[in-house]
């Protein structure tokens, strides 16, 4: 081995000029830059040790393409490591910029996502309400059709030739039909009120749960720490898009009024939700939620008004028929009494 080569071999790995990858204390221990610096620092020490052992070896003369001294080799190796380090910094900076850009896009899309999810919930609940109420109304419709057929039979049997006993039997049968019809109308009204109450409570509960999940998602949305060195042109954008302020308590959803008294003002609400942030996304969720509540309440009150009007109309029509039927029975009874009087007179 040439003296000039061996002269470059000395145990000086601890010199500051060779320790170019000392871990930076200000970096977070589990961050990507910290992990990368740790790997490069370890690689630097290992390569220095291997190089020192190599240049102290007696077999050095067999390698013709290696640098002549340890210092030359260390400088060449560390330049490569520094190049890797710079590439990683560039990659990290680009990745941060892309993450911030994607998060900005996501934050802009979240309001429309909240609108879609809340709208879908509202439509499902509205469709379920109409379907359930439609089933109850269809059942009453079948009952009304059957009752109307029975009524026609009774009307056809109401003849002048009926004797007193047959007239009483027919009258009792028709009055029983009227009572059953009255009961069916009232029962259907109660069932529809139950449908409204249950669906209204389910809508409010489901919407409150969905709102809480959306707000929680916004709270937990990742926020990259963008420094001036990493992405200086994005710092202002993050603040503008987020418009983030401190924590906030969002009021709950008012429960819908009872179907029995829809004009009553309700004060009970679902539980309030507290978030650690307040952004445009949070505000959009609450805005969409409140709009959905107003629309569903309009549907709710419309259905209440419809079922109340239907009940009044049917009961009014039934009462008109009851009055008419009683007049018919009275007329037939009077006719029978008059006929019996004439018969008795002629007999005597």
UniProtKB/TrEMBL annotation:
Positions of the DUF4456 domain: 47-222
Source domain of life: Eukaryota
Entries under InterPro entries matching the protein: DUF4456 (IPR027914)
Pfam families cross-referenced by the UniProt entry: DUF4456
Protein name (Swiss-Prot/TrEMBL): DUF4456 domain-containing protein
Organism: Champsocephalus gunnari (Mackerel icefish)
């Amino acid at each position: 081995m040439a003296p000039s080569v061996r002269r470059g071999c000395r145990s000086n790995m601890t010199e500051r000029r060779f320790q170019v990858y000392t871990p930076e204390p200000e970096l977070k221990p589990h961050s990507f830059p910290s992990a990368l610096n740790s790997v490069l620092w370890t690689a630097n020490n290992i390569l220095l040790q291997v190089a020192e052992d190599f240049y102290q070896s007696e077999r050095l003369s067999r390698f013709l393409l290696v640098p002549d001294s340890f210092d030359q080799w260390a400088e060449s190796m560390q330049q490569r490591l520094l190049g890797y380090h710079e590439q990683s910094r560039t990659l990290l900076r680009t990745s941060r910029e892309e993450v911030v850009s994607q998060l900005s896009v996501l934050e802009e899309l979240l309001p429309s996502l909240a609108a879609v999810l809340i709208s879908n919930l509202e439509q499902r609940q509205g469709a379920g309400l109409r379907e359930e109420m439609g089933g109850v109304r269809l059942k009453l419709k079948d009952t009304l059709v059957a009752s109307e057929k029975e009524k026609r039979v009774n009307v056809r049997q109401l003849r002048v030739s009926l004797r007193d006993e047959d007239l009483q039997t027919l009258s009792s049968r028709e009055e029983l039909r009227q009572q059953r019809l009255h009961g069916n109308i009232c029962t259907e009204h109660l069932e529809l009120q139950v449908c409204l109450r249950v669906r209204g409570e389910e809508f409010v509960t489901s919407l409150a749960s969905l709102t809480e999940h959306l707000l929680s998602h916004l709270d937990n949305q990742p926020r990259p720490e963008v420094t001036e060195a990493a992405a200086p042109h994005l710092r202002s954008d993050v603040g503008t898009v987020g418009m983030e302020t401190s924590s906030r308590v969002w009021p709950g959803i008012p429960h819908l009024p009872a179907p029995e008294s829809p004009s009553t003002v309700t004060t009970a609400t679902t539980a309030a939700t507290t978030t650690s942030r307040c952004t445009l996304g949070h505000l959009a969720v609450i805005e969409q939620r409140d709009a959905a509540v107003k629309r569903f309440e309009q549907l709710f009150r419309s259905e209440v008004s419809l079922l109340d009007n239907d009940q009044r109309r049917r009961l009014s029509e039934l009462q008109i028929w009851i009055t008419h039927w009683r007049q018919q029975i009275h007329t037939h009874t009077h006719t029978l009494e008059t006929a019996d009087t004439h018969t008795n007179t002629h007999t005597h």
